[in-house]
Each structure stands twice: as structure tokens, then as C-alpha cells.
# Entry
Amino acid sequence: MRQAAKVLQLFKTLHRTRQQVFKNDARALEAARIKINEEFKSNKSETSPKKIEELIKIGSDVELLLRTSVIQGIHTDHNTLKLVPRKDLLIENVPYCDAPTQKQ
# Structure
């Protein structure tokens, strides 16, 4: 895939992820939209293939981080925050075991 196509795909993916992660939060949606657009505009004139690949990697890492680590919180009281995790964040928790088991 050509680099221009990769960059466009990443741009679209970041905006889709932004819409999922910050759903129902107009302020966060707008701030994320502005930040994504600013970052892409500031690197629009980059011509070095190596630097472009590095920026694509950074953008992909940011998308993964947003998708897997960000949880929305809603203020319900003065000192209370209600967390609203997305379904894709709710993974089965495997308990840690201090004592390794012997394979038979």
C-alpha cells in the first residue's frame, strides 16, 4: 500500500476511534478532532519516507491506546465519577497465580 493511502487510512481510523471512545461527550469529541487535524496538518509537507513511516507508527500506537485504554467518566456528584467502559474494554480478567503449576 502506498504511503499516501496508509496516511489517509490512519486519519480515518483515528477519527472513527475518536467517535467511539468519546461518544456522547461533545467537548472531548471536538478536542480530539482538532488535535488529530492539527497533527496531520503540521506534518502535511513531510517528504521523507522514513519519517512518514515513523509518524504512521506513532499514529497507529495512539489509535491502539485510545481504543484499549481510555474509559469515559461522568460526574454524578461533587466527588463522584461514574465510569462508562465500552464493551470491547470489558475482557475476562484472569487472576494472577503466585505458585506455578506443574505440567504433567
Notes: The radius of gyration is 19 Å. The chain has one domain: 1-89. The helical segments are 3-21, 26-42, 49-69. Residues 1-89 form one domain.
